[in-house]
Amino acid sequence: MTRKPLIVGNWKMNKDHLESLTYLQKLYWILQDKNFDFTKVDLCILPPFTSIRSIQLLADTDNIPILYGAQDVADSLDGPYTGDISASFLKKLGCAFTLVGHSERRRYHDETVKTIIGKLRMSLEQSITPILCVGSVNADDDSAIDQQIDYALMQVSKALSQLENYSLNNLVIAYEPVSAIGTGQTIELSDIDIMTTSIRNCVEYQGNKKSADSVRILYGGSVDATNAQLILQLDSIDGLLVGGASLDYNEFARIGLLAAKGVVYDN
Asked: Which region among 56-60, 74-78, 206-210 has the lowest average model confidence (pLDDT)?
């Protein structure tokens, strides 16, 4: 890997603020016991909004170098938007990342391209790294890989086409085929490689080679400790977006340790 690996745990609507504190403490203790090098791999958890302040206080108090972020962000900075959470609020809570355009947001909340672009802009303006999620929004999608590539690249292209005034160097893109999410079945490694390589080429076309070389591309979809190492060995992959497996701190720690074993990143 030439880019610093990133392992992200998306908890979705799980764990209250007390459970979140217990999880973070135990995850940190496990990794310390294993001499995990936090400077070589970025580990990030995405708890529910209600847990972020508790996570911030514990991380700051105990100097825990595990990153954290939000599962979503508003496409406006402030205003009469009941229930939305501003990127400026998240910045003050110390959030390093936020998901944008996750398949569940696209599918169940009808997020449009305009909304996603707004969320990307707000995140970048507040120096929060957005994790742009792309992939089919149809859980029954069994189309050929070339059709799936076309769909994912359309999502990337539309999202990045309106960001010409923003640096894309810190952007993260997560490829998440919906057919693999929660099913226990990842797609073929060769298909992951083709898809993620195509995404990087698309970033270069929309931006420039520097951006394409800097953008970290993750894979998400039924990732766990049994398949993480094989996926991370792909040259086109810079990390993982972990769903259900991230709810178990032992399992998430194992995935982080697997990522660290293959690290060739030099800061």
From this structure: 206-210
How many domains in the chain?
A: 1
Rounded to 5 degrees, what are φ and ψ at 175?
-90, 120
The active-site residue out of 17, 104, 109, 176 is 176
89-129 residue pLDDT tens: 999 999 999 999 998 898 899 999 999 999 999 999 999 99
Q: Please state, in angstroms and rounded to a whole number, the distance separating the CA atoms of residues 244 and 251.
A: 10
Residue 227 inside a domain? The answer is yes
- What pLDDT is attached to residue 1? 46
- d(C-alpha 249, C-alpha 26), whole Å: 7
Q: Could you say which of 102, 104, 111, 251 is catalytic?
A: 102
**Distance between CA 63 and CA 49 in Å, rounded?**
21
* Choice between 164 and 96, residue whose per-residue pLDDT is larger: 96
Q: Is residue 266 part of a domain?
A: no
CATH of the domain at 84: 3.20.20.70
Do residues 206 and 157 make contact, with C-beta atoms less than 8 angstroms apart? yes
102 lies in which domain range? Answer: 6-261
In a domain, 267, yes or no: no
Give catalytic status of residue 17 as yes or no.
no
pTM metric for this prediction: 0.93
Whether 1 maps to a domain, the answer reads no
Q: Which whole number is the average pLDDT over 226-254?
A: 95
Identify whether 176 is a catalytic site residue: yes
